[in-house]
Specification:
This protein is mainly α. The protein has six helices and two strands. It has a two-stranded antiparallel ribbon with strand order 1-2. The longest helix has 15 residues.
């Protein structure tokens, strides 16, 4: 995908146009690839060949309301507080919900954000986890 995107940028073409042009009429059976019954296999959705450190694996907690509620419950159970008590994690999450999309001209609140590593931690779908990545 990275190489295809680079080609498209250079040629001013859409991804689909360039992919069709490069395929020379060859079609692959996605179901066979997906099931592992093909010589082709799935790769990670994106990478930077030879420079995996150029990718950051990150996200925002605002997409995980269930996770925020579970963390809240876990902390409350650990410290035996009332259900109405808001933990710091939930407070930061709530700030992002309330102030994450400020009105024009107003300053908002940055959402809860996490960093999981660089591109070296990515695994292709269905690929076995290697011991070296778990150490």
């Amino acid at each position: 995908m990275y190489e295809l995107a680079q080609q498209c940028l250079g040629l001013g073409r859409q991804l689909s146009e360039q992919a069709i042009a490069l395929a020379n009429g060859e079609l692959l059976d996605y179901d066979m690839i997906y099931s592992g019954a093909s010589e082709w296999h799935l790769l990670t959705p994106i990478d930077v060949p030879g420079a995996s450190s150029r990718l950051m694996i990150t996200g925002t907690g605002l997409t995980h309301l269930g996770s925020a509620k579970e963390r809240q419950s876990m902390h409350l159970a650990d410290i035996a507080k009332e259900a109405e008590t808001m933990t710091d994690s939930m407070r930061v999450f709530q700030w992002g919900i309330e102030g994450g999309r400020p009105a024009e001209g107003e300053i908002g609140i940055a959402p809860e954000w996490f960093y999981k590593g660089n591109g070296s931690v990515l695994q292709a779908p269905f690929a076995p986890l290697s011991d070296t990545r778990l150490r």
